[in-house]
Every structure is written in C-alpha cells, then in structure tokens.
Amino acid sequence: MPCRLKIAHRTGHSYDGVVMSSYNEARMMPLTFPGQNTLDARIEVSPHASIFRYRDYWGARVVAFDIQDQHDELAVAATSLVETSPPIAPPAGLSWAELAAPVVADRWVEYTIPTARTRPDAELATIAADVTAGQDPATAARTLADWVRDTLEYVPGVTGVNTSAHEAWLDRRGVCQDIAHLTLLMLRARGLPARYVSGYVHPQGAAAEIGETRTGESHAWVEWWNGAWTAWDPTNGVPVGEQHVVVARGRDYDDVPPLKGIYSGPPSTSIGVTVEVTRMA
After folding, report:
1. Which of 142, 165, 166, 252 lies at a C-alpha separation of 20 to 30 Å from 159?
2. Rounded alpha-carbon distances, angstroms, from residue 28 to 44, 128, 146, 175
3. At what angle do helices 176-190 and 137-151 cross, to 10 degrees?
4. pLDDT (tens digit, 9 = 90+) per residue, 112-151?
5. Does the CA dihedral 52-55-58-63 come out positive or negative?
6. For the ranges 149-158, 201-210, 227-236, which has the lowest average pLDDT?
7. Which residues contact 139 (CB under 8 A, 6 or more apart)?
8. Main-chain dihedrals φ then ψ at residue 267, nearest 5 degrees
9. DSSP notation for 79-120
10. pLDDT tens digits for 59-79?
11. How many beta carbons lie within 10 A of that of residue 152, not counting itself?
12. How remote is the C-alpha of 48 from its chain's centroid?
C-alpha cells in the first residue's frame, strides 16, 4: 500500500550583522518517479525573494533566489506532500563481465570515477575485493553496504559536511552522509556504478499513526546500478521503501546540498535544521 507523507523542512542562516546581498540555491523539493509521486511542493523564503526554478544536471528540482535587501537572517521553509511505495525486489542483475563492458563504463562513467569525498586508497580497494571474493555483483553490493554499516559507528556530531569517506573510515565514526560516502567508495572500487541520494526518512514509515507528526530526518543513502538501479539505506541496513522520500541524486553530497549560496556580509551560523514528517494516509 502506498504511504502519503507530509514533510516540513526548515533551515537557514543567522548573520553577525547586516548582509547586503545573498545568492542561494535550495534542493528541498522531492522528485517524482516510479515508486514516488510528489503531489505538492513549495518553498517559502524570508526575507521575500524572487524565485527561479530549474532542473539541475542530475535531475534535482532547484529553487534559486537572491536577496538584495539588507537582512540579518535567512530562513527557508519547504513543505511537500508525497506518496511513496514499499520497496520492490531488486533485479537479478548483471555479471562482472557485463558490468565491465565498455558500453556500461561509457554510460555511467560519472558514477564510477572517484570524487574528492569518495577517493579510495589501496587498503580500502583491497578490503572491497576481499570481502566480496567469489560473489556476484548483486550480492557483493549488499555485502559492501553491510560491511560499511558494521564498520562505521553512527555518532552524530563527530564529522561535518566537508568530511570525506576516508576521514570517516580512519575515525570509524560518522553519520548517514559518511556511511553513504564510504559505501559509494567501496562500490565504485569494486566496479559498480553508484550514486548518492539525499532526502528524508520517516522513523516509522507505514507503521506510523495517520495524522501523527514525528520528528524526521534529512537523510542520505545510495543507489547502485546492476542492470537497473537498486536503492539501499546502509545506515539502517534496509531497502529504500515507503518511509524514504527522494529529493536529489548525484555523485556525492556536493551535488545535492539542501541549501547553499554566497553572500556579502559578516560571518554566519546555521539557524539549525528541523524536519517534521506526518503520515497523512
């Protein structure tokens, strides 16, 4: 049965004085694709700003806006209503020889090459090969995701948005962003095209009471390609399903930040992030 979720996401910045102008992009509006249908999505910006909407290279819905009036705080609130579906069984998948074919490498090259956040080293590449020895690609992908989940302890606050997968690996701690990045590193090191997914997760999913608002999370997970895209949440060790809402996909976090921009003025601090999720049906 589909699950209908209402999401309220609020974030922004507070400045140590007056800002003369700022230029921003928000990726906070969920996508529509088979298994997820966005019924309504809107973004409100304070102070008032003219908004320009477009799709970026990776397919995300972007709201771009600039503020030319003096201000000491920027607040962005996104509200959406989304229908999601339970997870579907992944396809049987390809062989390693089929994945290594030039046509696959050409098609998905952007999801196979390392990024600054997912650059492997010899030790991790060796581990990826060793823990999946003798396994087919579909099994290997799950094995690597489970290995990362067992290896990195989930500890909020020990890493930041600029932490790389290798730094999290050295510390053996991180959050969902770090777990997703390290999973991508391992999948790509093994030869599987893989991408970073940002969105939201309901803490209970279809088990939640209708009409009850819960504190949700901005979340990150991965998708790997093995003849078709398979979505997996390595932080929770579950397939992506009705409790997940996809907002954006890319090579790593740098392609999908919920809010980024530049401004002219004094230093800033985040006003925090709140996500509230209500199951409507």
Report:
1. 142
2. 11, 33, 28, 20
3. 140
4. 999 999 998 899 999 999 999 999 999 999 999 999 999 9
5. positive
6. 201-210
7. 132
8. -60, 155
9. EEEEEE----PPP----HHHHTSHHHHHHTGGGTS--TTS--
10. 999 999 999 999 999 999 999
11. 25
12. 28
Which amino acid is present at 62? V
- Lookup: tokens for 281: 């049906």
Residue 242: CB atoms within 10 Å:
22
Tokens representing 216? 């949700």
Q: How far apart are CA 7 and CA 29, in angstroms?
A: 10
* Segments in 101-217 forming alpha helices (H): 102-107, 122-131, 137-151, 165-171, 176-190
Give the torsion sign (CA, 183, 5, 83, 259): negative
The mean predicted confidence, pLDDT, of the chain is 94
Residue at 9: amino acid letter: H
Q: Which domains does the chain have, with CATH numbers?
A: 3-85+257-279 (2.60.40.2250), 96-255 (3.10.620.30)
Look up the pTM and report it. Answer: 0.95
Contact 9, 82 (CB under 8 A): no
Give the contacts of 277 (CB within 8 A, at least 6 positions apart).
5, 6, 7, 8, 200, 202, 203, 213, 214, 215, 216
pLDDT at residue 206 above 90?
Answer: no
- Cα 47 from Cα 21, distance rounded (Å): 11
Looking at residue 162, its amino acid is N
**Largest CA-CA distance found in the chain, in angstroms, rounded:** 62
Cα 206 to Cα 192: distance, rounded to the nearest angstrom: 31
Count of beta carbons in the 10 Å neighbourhood of residue 28: 29
